TrEMBL record:
<dbReference type="InterPro" id="IPR047109">
    <property type="entry name" value="CAD-like"/>
</dbReference>
<dbReference type="InterPro" id="IPR036291">
    <property type="entry name" value="NAD(P)-bd_dom_sf"/>
</dbReference>
<protein>
    <recommendedName>
        <fullName>alcohol dehydrogenase (NADP(+))</fullName>
        <ecNumber>1.1.1.2</ecNumber>
    </recommendedName>
</protein>
<dbReference type="Pfam" id="PF08240">
    <property type="entry name" value="ADH_N"/>
</dbReference>
<dbReference type="InterPro" id="IPR013154">
    <property type="entry name" value="ADH-like_N"/>
</dbReference>
<dbReference type="InterPro" id="IPR011032">
    <property type="entry name" value="GroES-like_sf"/>
</dbReference>
<keyword id="KW-0862">Zinc</keyword>
<dbReference type="InterPro" id="IPR013149">
    <property type="entry name" value="ADH-like_C"/>
</dbReference>
<keyword id="KW-0560">Oxidoreductase</keyword>
<dbReference type="InterPro" id="IPR002328">
    <property type="entry name" value="ADH_Zn_CS"/>
</dbReference>
<dbReference type="Pfam" id="PF00107">
    <property type="entry name" value="ADH_zinc_N"/>
</dbReference>
<comment type="similarity">
    <text>Belongs to the zinc-containing alcohol dehydrogenase family.</text>
</comment>
<feature type="domain" description="Enoyl reductase (ER)">
    <location>
        <begin position="14"/>
        <end position="341"/>
    </location>
</feature>
<dbReference type="InterPro" id="IPR020843">
    <property type="entry name" value="ER"/>
</dbReference>
<keyword id="KW-0479">Metal-binding</keyword>
């Protein structure tokens, strides 16, 4: 066991505070990672404040982890000391079910082991990236290409794959019109990736205050959803809408923006149930879908794609003692576009 410094929420809705946690000894197939940077995802706030249901405390959040390998187990073949690596939202799965064998470990039938707020196979709670080090099985560690700086790569381990996976699955590319709903931590990566895939990209945001940013990041068009004329002008326009917002939506209004057989895919997860008139999907043969991160192989594919196209997250680097301030600013939409913790400050 190794004792490391970390920032943890001691209880639901409590401010995060500096503490120490124990990391397991490096096993035969384990990799010890010196964490250099950890992104702050809105999911961290949902879970630390029990917005998505009962959680495990004390909780060290963080599933956007970038660092350097400092030790490997004797059976490790994929990594060596000094490698630049990342860890995303999961650190294990059953490896035996149909989904795991198909490379969809995130949909493990028995339930993937999440990087934090989960229970590992040893029966102990998992703790995340707001810490100095982490021990992870090599099969759930990603290689960060040399073309990506570790600080801007960290958010790709959640925000990048969460948007890349549905864009790929629903065929975003040349000749396709894609709308990104929301221009935050997820949305800004969705814009970058959809543009790099060759799609015609439109941002749908509450206001136009981020319009200049959206166009610089690769959007072709930018509309305010607070303007009723937006829904009149864009009716029937899109092949795909990726919703990155975690607030309840008027799904009927947004489904009306889809072409026949278009898809509205949710990657943001509101804390409250939503309502839907099914005629919104029946008329036009439309799809209302969801998507959750991606498998390990697809996450590596995303990292390689981002490196090839020079796509890192737009970040604000902070010291660890500003985590609680950052949480409040995320809730106020006051970040462009991802807070990243310099873990040397923990």
């Amino acid at each position: 066991m190794t004792t490391v410094a970390a920032y943890a929420a001691p209880a639901a809705k409590a401010p995060l505070e500096r503490t120490t946690i124990e990391r397991r000894a490096v096993g035969e197939f384990d990799v010890l990672i010196d964490i250099k940077f950890a992104g702050i995802c809105h999911s961290d706030i949902h879970q630390a404040r029990e917005g998505w249901g009962e959680a495990i405390f004390p909780m060290v959040p963080g599933h956007e982890i970038a660092g350097v390998v400092s030790e490997v187990g004797p059976g490790v073949t994929r990594f060596q000391v000094g490698d630049r690596v990342g860890v995303g939202c999961m650190v294990d799965s059953c490896r035996e079910c149909e989904n795991c064998k198909a490379g969809d470990e995130q949909y493990c039938v028995k339930g993937a082991t999440m990087t934090y707020n989960g229970i590992g196979k040893d029966g102990e709670p998992t703790q995340g990236g707001y810490s100095e080090k982490v021990v992870v099985d090599e099969n759930y560690v990603l290689r960060i290409p040399d073309g990506l700086s570790l600080d801007v790569a960290a958010p790709l381990l959640c925000a990048g794959i969460t948007t890349y996976s549905p864009l790929k699955h629903w065929g975003a590319g040349p000749g396709k019109k894609v709308a990104v709903l929301g221009m935050g931590g997820l949305g800004h990566m969705a814009v970058k990736i959809a543009h790099a895939l060759g799609a015609e990209v439109t941002v749908l945001s509450q206001s136009l205050r981020k319009k200049d940013d959206g166009l610089k990041l690769g959007a072709d068009h930018y509309y305010a959803t607070s303007d009723p004329k937006t829904f009149e002008e864009l009716q029937g326009s899109f092949d795909l809408i990726v919703s990155t917002v975690s607030a309840s939506l008027d799904f009927g209004a947004f489904l009306s923006l889809l072409k026949t057989r278009g898809a509205l895919v949710n990657v943001g997860a509101p804390e409250e149930p939503v309502s839907l008139n099914l005629f919104s999907v029946i008329g036009g043969g439309k799809t209302l879908a969801g998507s959750m991160i991606g498998g390990i192989a697809e996450t590596q594919e995303m990292l390689d794609f981002c490196a090839e196209h020079g796509l890192g997250a737009e970040i604000e680097l902070i010291s660890a003692d500003r985590i609680n301030e950052a949480y409040e600013r995320v809730l106020a939409s006051d970040v462009r576009y991802r807070f990243v913790i310099d873990t040397a400050t923990i």
